[in-house]
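User: Quick one: structure for sequence A, then sequence B.

Assistant: Sequence A:
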Amino acid sequence: MVSAAELIQRARSIVPLMAEHAAEAERDRKPANAVIEALREARIFDLMVPKVHGGLELDLDTFLEVGLTLAEGDASMAWVSTFYIEHNWMLCQFPMEFQTALYRDRSHVLAPASLAPTGHVEVLAEGYRLNGRWQWATGWPHAEWVIAGANLEQTDGPPRPLFLALPREEVEFEDTWWTDGMKATGSHDIIIRDRTVPFERSVSILAMGSQDSPGAQHHSAPLYRTPMTPILGLAASMPAVGQARVGVERFRQEVGVRKTYGGRRTQASRTSIQTRLGKLTLDLDEAEGLLRKVTEEVMALRDQATPEHRTRWIASTATAVHKSRAILAEVAEASGASAHFESHPLQRAVRDVNTLSAHTIFDLDQRLEDYGRTLLGLEPKSLF
């Protein structure tokens, strides 16, 4: 069995490969095959899969360290990796009949998930009929299965949000991922037309991560009764914070050798550079510290968390991402014209984190409003 420390070390060993393939992956608009295979061999995608399915059954503290480490190599590939890990956790919340069949001959599945319940679903005798189009299917080029969200209309109450799982061959895709950042994630649109999904390949979104979910009832580890939203928040925020971490370190190294224009001294001798580096380092400590505090609290409280805890966790991950974006912008501002060559990784980091921060979960105004409402004893407004 691979320990947490060993898995983190394996992640560290893959960082140079991710950095080496980052430009190629951005150009091809999909993850590099060599990186996917290295992550498979290192068992990175097994992190949250239960031992009964051949996985490592490691917890959120390991997820955090692995995600932040991978993010130092490339934001896009770290994003794909952390979501592939999280989506295996999601699949392990489905009914056991499906889990057992899915993991019979493997210890992980590469599964994009389009979580917004935009699909149309209706009940048949043998399962659900599913139709619709979904955006943001991160990791589609290497997909083996797909998770799609849909609202089941009910006559006696509000719609019941569901996740449904389908094999790749039952899903179409449209090449829509033409973006200015996070290009290598392959987050295309997916289309599902009149597919029948057996009941055992569905799970209630509201039950997921609580004691009522199939995963929590069958897997004893606390990980499987952890709320989904903070896991999603961590998966999405680690690439930004990891890129800020490597950006500040690269800045520290480069000002030590880069000469002032027309002079002989290095930029490290300038008071303004020293001051800026000190500020950037403290800003980074704050961003990373937010993720560490969220991880610690989620592991302590799990599904016993109050709405105040839950809204604070998501507001914290959103704040960490916005801090990371500001850090990278300041590093770019202080790094001179050379940082804007396409060969310099900083320009990609800035574009990637700008794009990443536009994810709906990082709408900082909404996240802070929800947190503030719970502090005042009011219900949060948003789904998160």
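Sequence B:
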Amino acid sequence: MKLVKRNQKLHNPDSPLLIGEVKDGDVVKEVNEPSYIDTQTRLF
């Protein structure tokens, strides 16, 4: 529960990250991840 509270304090709604912010020295890489949503079987 302590970890949850700590992470809630790190949340910034203006940040592109879910938790925290990009800081100096952080490395951000863009990766090509295929979507599997379109290949799922549909019931209707």
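The CA atoms of residues 5 and 11 lie 10 Å apart. The helical segments are 2-10.

User: Thanks, that's what I needed.
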